[in-house]
Design goal:
The chain is mainly α and about 160 residues long. Helices cover about 50% and strands about 5% of the residues.
């Protein structure tokens, strides 16, 4: 039987560019950030990750680690205040979203407690970790593919003619 290889990425990141931040409220700013770095899809109604990140940002002010349950309670409270649906507030989903934030190198975990990476700013956490360990290696590999494609389709190399039967 013939084995077929599958194209499975080593890592994946989505980046989007939006207009400059303006007079949005804090939750909307966090939502645009999540959309910009691929943690949230445009038009996605299940945006609990925004409230999770807001909870961690609030806790960062007091240099406080939070349990997943505390993050969930904060998210439910924030969503009720904004008159938003509480869908996605199940503890299992809170933990899954926290894992996504950890994968993006924005959040630390220690003994089932979470915080923004080293209580730093999200901009420095993103620059020092996500950019260095996720984006730069991806760009480097893309450049390798660009060079390989250029080499494979070089104008100076003899190329096989295509059969169009």
């Amino acid at each position: 039987m013939k084995t077929v290889s599958r194209d499975i990425p080593l890592s994946e990141i989505t980046l989007r560019r939006y207009e400059k931040p303006s007079t949005l409220d804090r939750r909307e700013l966090v939502k645009k950030l999540c959309l910009s770095i691929g943690l949230l899809q445009p038009g996605d109604s299940r945006d609990i990750i925004v409230d999770i990140l807001c909870a961690l940002l609030e806790a960062r002010k007091r240099k406080r680690w939070l349990k997943a349950e505390e993050i969930g309670a904060y998210a439910i409270k924030l969503r009720a205040k904004k008159k938003l649906s509480s869908s996605g507030c199940a503890l299992s989903n809170i933990r899954r979203q926290l894992l996504r934030l950890r994968t993006m190198c924005l959040v630390d975990k220690l003994k089932n407690r979470y915080r923004i990476l080293e209580f730093s700013t999200v901009s420095s956490a993103f620059s020092e970790k996500a950019k260095a360990y996720l984006i730069e290696p991806a760009l480097s590999r893309i450049n390798e593919y660009l060079s390989a494609v250029d080499s494979a389709y070089s104008l100076t190399r003899k190329t096989k003619t295509l059969n169009t039967n």
